[in-house]
Structures are given as C-alpha cells and as structure tokens.
Amino acid sequence: MACFRTSARICRQFLFNNSSSTKFSAVFSSPRWMSSGNYEYIIVEKKGEKNNVGFIQLNRPKALNALCKGLMSELDQAVQKFEKDDDVGCIVLTGSDRAFAAGADIKEMQTKEFSDVWRGNFLSEWDALSRCSKPVIAAVNGFALGGGCEVAMMCDIIYAGDKAQFGQPEITLGTIPGAGGTQRLCKAVGKSKAMEMVLTANRISAEEAEKAGLVSKVVPAAELVNEAIKTAEKISSFSKIATGMCKEAVNAGYEMSLKEGLHFEKRLFHASFASNDRREGMTAFSEKRPPKFTDS
Ligand SMILES: C/C=C/C(=O)SCCNC(=O)CCNC(=O)[C@H](O)C(C)(C)COP(=O)(O)OP(=O)(O)OC[C@H]1O[C@@H](n2cnc3c(N)ncnc32)[C@H](O)[C@@H]1OP(=O)(O)O
C-alpha cells in the first residue's frame, strides 16, 4: 500500500508538472531526489557541479503553488535538512514558469475564524527561511503574490525572470499581508511604493522591482534557475563560516542604527580571525594559489 501511494505521488508529480522533459528526467532519474524524502508539494535536490547547492522547487502547479499548510511544512523540513547538510553552502528556492507562488492558500483560509488563527498562531510555521543561517536565493518566475512575494522577500537574494510579477493583493480579500508584506516591502522599495502596492493590489514587473530595489537581478525567464544556481555555487565555494558571518552582518545591520551595525560588523570581522578559513584565505592569496576552505 505504501509503495502504491509513493508511485501515485510520483505519477501525480509528473502529470501536474507543467515542465519540459528535462525536468522530467531530473525528477525521475535522480537518485538524489528519491533519497531526499517523499515530498508531495516540493521537489528537493542537490545541484551544482560539486553538489553543494540545495535546490527546492515549489511544485503545486494546479494551484499556482498556493502556500498550503502541507507545502509550508515540507518547505520547513527541506530547509532544515539543507541547514544540517555540511555539503550545502547555499539554497535556491524556485517555483514554476507560471508562478513562484500565488500566495497563501485562500481556500484553506476561507473558513478559518479569528480564534483559529490567533490561538493557532497561524503563519508562525512560515519562519523557516528567515531562521536559516545559510544564504537562500529566490529565483522568481511568474506570479509572486501575497505570501508568495513575502516568501521571496524572506530569502537573502531575489533573482527574477523577466516576466515575473510581484504584488500584495490581500486587500482584495478583505485582509492585509501577514508574513512581512508591509514591513519587508517597505524596507525594500520605500514607504510610498509599498503603501501603493498594499492599498491598490497593483503588481510590479520584474524590471520595476529591480529599479525599486526588491530584486537584485533580472534575467530571461528560461535562464533564471541556472543563473541562480551559478551564484549559489559561487557562494558555496567560500568558507561557510565567512558566508554565515556576512549574512548575519547584513541582516543585523539592516535592523540596527548605523553606529550599532558598524560595531557589530567589526566584531564579526575580528571573530573571523579565529577561523582556520581566514588564515587559509589570506595565506592562499599570499602564495598565489586557490584557497582550500575547510569550514573550520
Ligand atoms: C499571509 C499571506 C496571505 C496571502 O497570501 S492571501 C493570498 C494572496 N494572493 C492572491 O490573492 C492571489 C490569488 N490568485 C489570483 O489572483 C489568480 O489566481 C492569479 C492572478 C494569480 C492567476 O490568475 P489565472 O491565471 O486566471 O489563474 P486562476 O484560474 O485564478 O488560478 C489557477 C488555479 O489556482 C488556484 N489559485 C490561485 N491562487 C490561489 C491561492 N492563493 N489560493 C488557493 N488557490 C489559488 C485557483 O483557484 C485556480 O484553481 P481552480 O482551477 O481549481 O479554480
């Protein structure tokens, strides 16, 4: 019976995956995927020449990757797994060509009462990405709306395909963003643009998002995932201690006053002198050879 369920799930993933035969072979022929856990709503693999990039693809195409409880719980598990995987130095999170994610699952929320969401602290399980100490790159094609835009903003770097659209349409549902859509958006694009987006549900294009500062790079949609993986491979090639410190310094500095941020950054810089990788990096430079980082 368990075997039948697994086969049915695999078939469902194939039938509903609106992707090409390349993705078909990636899903079916990859023993890595099979060994990475039986997920229903996401595809999890390790990518990159050195297998050091954790790759998560949201895979609920019929609902445009709406972020239902099951999907968010699987995402949490996959992120935690990659967090513990010593080979993985960076994670790439993507969706489909049509949608990164069209938001929290409206049909799942439709019948919830105030007491359900308040007492159950609804959305608290969405914090996995924000808690991850390893860098996470969102590769966004298609719709990134509501919770989809918020999940992208929880990542450290956003790359967008040229047809991507970002928006916070919760106002049309009689509610407001609840997973960072006001706060993070405001910090990313400024108060006036964020206010306009949340009050009107107007979407912005990838190009506008890049100009406003929400995304760091726009590339042709078909090249997006490879581009994100290339960047992730580069990040993974560095010392994990140093990349972790960089991430911590940028994130902390973002929240602090300039004075506090500068102090915190300098202290982390000092702390990096306790690592073997700092010594190796500087020695390798002096000896004109590539460094061999040991993440120690
Ligand atoms: C804290 C976070 C809160 C939130 O995130 S609240 C949710 C915010 N998001 C939204 O309001 C966006 C809702 N979706 C849409 O407006 C539209 O979709 C799109 C503009 C993204 C695409 O429109 P089109 O191309 O016409 O496709 P389609 O027929 O509407 O959608 C295809 C299937 O996907 C389901 N779906 C789309 N978004 C969601 C969602 N957010 N929650 C649950 N289901 C969703 C639909 O219902 C439908 O399914 P079926 O074919 O069975 O009718």
From TrEMBL:
Pfam families assigned: ECH_1
Catalytic activity reported: (3S)-3-hydroxybutanoyl-CoA = (2E)-butenoyl-CoA + H2O; 3-hydroxypropanoyl-CoA = acryloyl-CoA + H2O; (3S)-hydroxydecanoyl-CoA = (2E)-decenoyl-CoA + H2O; a (3E)-enoyl-CoA = a 4-saturated (2E)-enoyl-CoA
Pathway this chain belongs to: Lipid metabolism
UniProt-listed PROSITE patterns: ENOYL_COA_HYDRATASE (PS00166)
Primary localization: mitochondrion
Compartments in which it is found: Mitochondrion matrix
GO cellular component: mitochondrial matrix
UniProt cross-references to Gene3D superfamilies, sorted A to Z: 2-enoyl-CoA Hydratase, Chain A, domain 1 (3.90.226.10), Lyase 2-enoyl-coa Hydratase, Chain A, domain 2 (1.10.12.10)
GO biological process: fatty acid beta-oxidation
Enzyme Commission number(s): 4.2.1.17, 5.3.3.8
InterPro entries on file: ClpP/crotonase-like_dom_sf, Enoyl-CoA_hyd/isom_CS, Enoyl-CoA_hydra/iso, Enoyl-CoA_hydra_C
UniProt record similarity statement: Belongs to the enoyl-CoA hydratase/isomerase family.
PANTHER family linked: ENOYL-COA HYDRATASE, MITOCHONDRIAL, ENOYL-COA HYDRATASE-RELATED
Quaternary organization: Homohexamer; dimer of trimers.
Name of protein: Enoyl-CoA hydratase, mitochondrial
Organism: Magallana gigas
Taxonomic placement: Eukaryota, Metazoa, Spiralia, Lophotrochozoa, Mollusca
